Amino acid sequence: MVLDSDNRWLFTVDAVNHRVQRFESKGQRINSWGSLGSGDGDLRRASNIAINPVDGWLYVVDAGNNRIIRYDTRGQFLNSWGGGGTGSGLFDNPGQLLYDTVNRWLYVIDQGNNRVQTYNSRGESLRTWGRRRRDPSIP
Fold it and tell me: What is the pLDDT of residue 25?
């Protein structure tokens, strides 16, 4: 879960119901968005969330669709990137993510590919480190 920069709204992901929820900081639910699917703004197992406090954008890990979705704080779909695979910009079970307010980079742990991928605030790929091991039995 994350708070907006004014500590007014709290955002959570609901993996079971494939949605993002927005609450007032005192706990009253304001709205929610997302539904099961793979179209623009749809989610399949939303698993993590980060916020860009400068622009007010939310980044949601859509683990079931192997992508990241960017919304505004009211739930408007802005764009998404990724997809299943091993190439640059693709994911195999994306996990944690973190927005770096100094560099304005989004860090995404690509669990299945054993790497970290970084993006600018709009989702353009910047850097990748780590790599998938060929034989998982070798440490």
Answer: 82
